[in-house]
Amino acid sequence: MTEKEYFDSRLSSSDNEENFDVKALLSKYLKSWKLFLLFLLIFIGLAALALQFINTSYEVSSKILLKNETSNIDASGNNMVSNNPFSNSERVNNEIEVLTSVHLMRSVLDSLSLQCKVSTPETFSETELYGSDLPFKIVVDTLYPSAYDTSIKIKLEGKDSFSISEDFEGDLDAANSISSSYGYNRYNYGYKIEKPYGTFKIVPNEKSSVKSTEFLLEFRDIDEMAHDYVKKALSVYVINKDASVINIVLKEQNPQKGEDIINTLVEIYGIKVYQEKNAMALNNVKFIDERLNALSVELSEVEKNVAQFKTENELANVEFDANSFSEQEIDYSRKLTEAEIELKVLSAIDRNLRNGDNESTLNSLSVSSPNLVYLIDNYNRLQIERKSLQRTVPENNPRMIDIRDQLQQLKGNILGSLSTSRQSLRSTIGSIRSRSNQFAAKKQRIPSMQRQLLEISREQGIKENLFLYLLQKREEAALMVGVRQDNFTVIDKAITDFESKSPSKKLFMLVSLLLGLAVPVGIVHLKDGLNTKVADKKDVQKRISVPLIGEITHNASGKNLIEKGEESSRLAQDFRMMRMNMSFHLPKKKMQTILVTSAQEGEGKTFFSSNIGVALASSNSKVVILELDKHNPELMGALGAANSEIGISNYLSPGTRTININDLLVPVNNNDNLFAIGLGSEKVDGLESFNSVQMVQFMEQLRNDFDYIVIDSAPIGTLADTLALSKYSDCCVFMVRENYTHLDDLAILEEAKRNKKFKNPMVVFNDVTNN
């Protein structure tokens, strides 16, 4: 591979690193692979251990459908139609609140006797027993608060007996318990156990299949349990807002226990609804009975008022009586007319008889008295007979005399009867007129009486209708009493979803795996965030505008100088790359003098100066390396050359004018083209000596004698000597060491570039470990 090909490949690699940050990021993580492995093992181990203690819970669900047709039915069974469009959703929400009430859940837990927890002691955790797994059942009579702080150990002694021992955690005096003082006490099944913390019985469970003989019994506060179930485990919600289907979900460790809780919850909910409706119906029946009794009294009073009014006003039926009064008034008027006519007839008859008209007959047509009609008829017959005899016999005829005597006698009788009849007619006429006036007055009072009777009858009718309505409603309400009609239908009874295990072991392990990766990533980034030193070349490129001409890989060989035969090594290739990069950055000017510096000691100035000299000399160029770090002169030792008693300081000293530059040159590494000049034995005042005429002459002669001059100078962060040497250089190489150079030191170089303190500054990144 030629130098040009190697250089192109390095540039391509550099571009790829700039474009693919993921690669650099993964490289950063790979450097901390031990940290990742450690945390993965820790978190996976913790997850496996936690799964031994964490109990798995399942989702148990049930669905019920609220009946829309009974959404607005009262206690009597009437459907009260509502026009409120939100009535159904409001009712569903109300039922959800009832289902999630603590009181209802407490009834469920009490019904299932879940205030007692029976478990078996195990190595990692306690396993709660339920249902057929229970070896016995606890029948609680009374519990005191101290029971919740008492741990009871039960040991089965046989088929008929068991032993109890308590551990008290609260303030209960252990001396009050015989068991706590003398260990286990033996009891028979069904025996009423009285303790300071409560009274209870233990009865055997014939269906139990558990084989263990030792158990733990704990009493739990049922109110706290109800709160916990409602707030943490129970979820009731509407599946579809347009439907009345309610989904009831419960998270429970024991599937059978969860199914029993939900089924009992729905059952007790239905019983509660039935009891409320039944109580409402009974209250309605009671209310209606009270109202019927009061209304019966009121109705009786109204009926009495109607009867009294009709009695006082002699009314049976107002319309009928009004017609009757009119007819009777007409009848009395007719009778009055007839009586007056008859009276006039009788008066005429009386006048005729009294006026001496003894030959004419009398008119009895309008006469009503039978006796008078009889007398008048006899009188008229004798008159006719007398007139008939007058034509044939004389007046003194005995028969004529007898007729005259009879007529005279009949006349007296008729006059007497006329007097009597006239007197009777006058009385009759007065009576008729009186009765006629009475009926006329009643007829005038009919509208007023009709109005009064109508008011009384209206009140009577209202009370009668109300009484009949209440009787009907009482029967309807009575029919509702004792009749259970649920307002919901169970779509699905409680069923356990065994796929919904929580926590899922796979998910738990996955989370642990992610945590095992996330924590090291966080540590790596935290470390980077807290790091104040240069971590990679991006830190250099982000903070300064000085070009980076190359990187020096970490030297793991322990050798400080490239030797013959190592031209193909990675270290040699790095320096060859930097040699070419420097020439590319200064294409128009010959790069002859290279000033090497850094911010502080230990960043690789001497290492770079030595090896760049070797790299430059390998191209048949004549190279000299100057040791001008007066505080830490290490160049000669790094080059493997013997320290000479004379050096640059001796040359610059005023008392040694006879020293020749050739006397200062020390061959390096058996390379005919590479030489070094040490600092010397004299003390050097950097600013004064490096700015002297001798220094100028010294550098001019070196330029004439050598192709390249490499100056190993002091750090610019602490000394000003390097600034004095900058005027002799064609470029300045600033050394930056990975995880050694402080980020703040980069500002020194940026400030030097900005103020043009150095010619053509460049950066070399040293001791790179992530390549």
From TrEMBL:
UniProt-listed Pfam families: AAA_31, GNVR, Wzz
Keyword Kinase: yes
Name of the protein in its database record: non-specific protein-tyrosine kinase
AAA domain residues: 591-740
Subcellular location: Cell inner membrane
Enzyme superclass (EC): transferase
Coiled-coil region list: 285-319
Catalytic activity, as annotated: L-tyrosyl-[protein] + ATP = O-phospho-L-tyrosyl-[protein] + ADP + H(+)
InterPro entries noted in UniProt: AAA_dom, Bact_polysacc_biosynth/exp, GNVR, LPS_length_determ_N, P-loop_NTPase, Wzc-like_C
Residue ranges occupied by any Polysaccharide chain length determinant N-terminal domain in the UniProt entry: 19-111
Keyword annotations: ATP-binding, Cell inner membrane, Cell membrane, Coiled coil, Kinase, Membrane, Nucleotide-binding, Transferase, Transmembrane, Transmembrane helix, Tyrosine-protein kinase
PANTHER family recorded: FERRIC ENTEROBACTIN TRANSPORT PROTEIN FEPE, TYROSINE-PROTEIN KINASE
Statement: the UniProt record of this protein carries the keyword Cytoplasm: no
Transmembrane portions of the chain: 35-54
Membrane topology classification: Multi-pass membrane protein
Listed EC numbers: 2.7.10.2
Chief location: membrane
Gene3D superfamilies per record: P-loop containing nucleotide triphosphate hydrolases
Domain Tyrosine-protein kinase G-rich: 449-527
UniProt record similarity statement: Belongs to the CpsD/CapB family.
Organism: Maribacter dokdonensis
